[in-house]
Amino acid sequence: MIDFLPKEVLEGLELARKRDLKKRSRLRVKVGDQTYPILRAWDNGFALDRDNTDHLRGLVDVFDGSKHLYQALIVASQEEGHEMSFEFKRATCATDRPPLDYDRPDDAPVALLPR
Fold this sequence. Notes:
- The structure is a single chain.
- The chain has a domain at 26-93: Thrombin, subunit H.
- The protein is elongated and about 85 Å long.
- It has one helix at 7-24; strands at 27-31, 34-42, 45-49, 58-64, 67-80, 83-93.
- The chain has 1 helix and 6 strands, in the order αββββββ.
- By secondary structure, it is of the alpha+beta class.
- The longest helix has 18 residues, at 7-24.
- It has a 6-stranded antiparallel beta barrel.
- The protein starts with 6 loop residues before the first helix and ends in a 22-residue tail after the last strand.
- Residues 96-115 are annotated as: Disordered.
């Protein structure tokens, strides 16, 4: 059925699909001052709109709304229609506190009380 639709109608359907994916997704990639909406995401990568992201690579930050999820090193992997897929070479989870320099035992006291 899709093979018989005019080219203009197919392009309009694809634009509407991309617009819907951008509105639904809360996930964003931030590179410097630029922010790009993530269309699809999976365990070791994500897909962005190909129009303005084919130059993207290197260190990026991944956000879910305003929550910082990852700081990741990415590389472009393949083009699929109007999407560009990227894969993580490294993805480090963002935390709200600095990492510990030692392993804390499970039964360690939270604080010591004076005598």
